[in-house]
């Protein structure tokens, strides 16, 4: 790994200093669902995880989910202009289509690109976000090479609560959302949660001078959404429910030859699910779910039919999960059936999956092991994973894990006319990592080294293996995703401090070049101060330089973004947020010739607690 030795030593020294400066352990009380597909205390997890809570989301003042993710360790983003335009999220250097994105347990991704429509996910509907780093194909199947990101909306419980917020900011940005959450109480309680929101912004030019199709006009977006969840307790340990989310985004962009035409795209993201949970025996809990997600995207670059395209993809998924307690251990058995369809191609793909996982805790030892088989048109894919953790006491824990994963070829890579090859095979990954964690006496530390070897990587290149002089997708490359991640937090007097640093080497082993649009170094720092009802803070995101293309001939410079915010809680129910992003008005690029936001401000008034 090509990291400077002095910096590695400095990172290790910092870790040891933090550990040696504390003595009393504190057990982490955060509950994480995604890492094991069942609620579990973070202190009992082997997997490397991050949780973004409701408070951080509320004060983000962000225009999209991607803006929040960019401030987390191990994550980088690229975007083709303002918040409404196409966005890619990279986890630990993995491609944007090498992560699984879930919305309340429902997969969301386009069948043609393999990526989630991040610009269509409504920020106001989110209660928390869980990020699990590393391969999770044994739990979630195809595409979970770099990690899994799960977004949770609000669930109802307790007395009815009403929330609402309105906000305004730079670029004529307007936001508003409202929700009601609660429970009827009693033995057959009905829990409910409903919300709706609207956002709009004039934005800024999606491209810069010199770009193909450059237009100096503003490229804005409008997004409206609604979501809901209802569940009913049939008896103790038995529950049925349903949930949905519908979001529609209109976003403008620049395109060649459009003239004065309003170039734009319409994106619809719809999810729905029905579920039932039953405590069949004191030690056996069964959950079944049927879910459907739709990703519909239309692009309109001129007034003629040749300038319009519509891509509609959908996924229907049935899962049956069984958690069986064996003493203090847990055995998990899973069956999953997924049907993917792309209407424009008239193509369908069905995947049947069978998985088993076993986790155990013995004194200071943590163990987990899992295996899965996915059967589809590309054949049977077998994946496995194993992890071990040891509690040294006083809040110090060491972990180690290995795991295999794969990414299924997208419909474009298989069937798109003149580009896809039906013979393309899944990409495969083999990961190993070790970690050191500490929670105690007001300090938190997480240090992780990972090495993920990828084979059969699909690339777009000319000529095709079939001998035709055209660009197409085919298996040829190998890659290595290697890195070291360090994160820590503490409190000094009345100031909360957080920091994360990532050194990584995402490289194409076939060519020896750095993977496009991924920096070797990036970091995040944050500090906030509480004085009575006033909370003020600063955030700094720093990224090193990287290349915009695979041949590494177009370099993108590094950048640093400073954000400031303050929140005033003037009553238990009412709060006011003021936020300024990119305070230094930094001019930078995350994709060549695409615009990024300069200095902006945002203010919001909120009623109720998220």
UniProtKB/TrEMBL annotation:
Q: Where is this motif: TonB box?
A: 30-36
Q: Which InterPro entries match?
A: Beta-barrel_TonB, Beta-barrel_TonB_sf, Plug_dom, Plug_dom_sf, TonB-dep_rcpt-like, TonB_box_CS
Domain TonB-dependent receptor-like beta-barrel, residue spans: 177-583
Q: Which Pfam families match?
A: Plug, TonB_dep_Rec_b-barrel
Supply one GO BP term. cobalamin transport
Q: Which stretch is the leader sequence?
A: 1-25
User: What is the protein's given name?
Assistant: Vitamin B12 transporter
Q: Where in the cell is it found?
A: Cell outer membrane
The entry's family comment says: Belongs to the TonB-dependent receptor family.
The UniProt record lists the TonB-dependent receptor plug domain at: 45-148
- Show the GO cellular component annotation of the record: cell outer membrane
Q: What lineage is on file?
A: Bacteria, Pseudomonadati, Pseudomonadota, Betaproteobacteria, Burkholderiales
User: What's the superkingdom here?
Assistant: Bacteria
Task: Give UniProt keywords alphabetically.
Answer: Cell outer membrane, Ion transport, Membrane, Receptor, Signal, TonB box, Transmembrane, Transmembrane beta strand, Transport
Q: Which SUPFAM superfamilies match?
A: Porins
Q: Is Signal one of the keywords? A: yes
Broad class of where this protein is predominantly found: membrane
The annotated topology with respect to the bilayer is:
Multi-pass membrane protein
Source organism of the structure: Massilia aurea
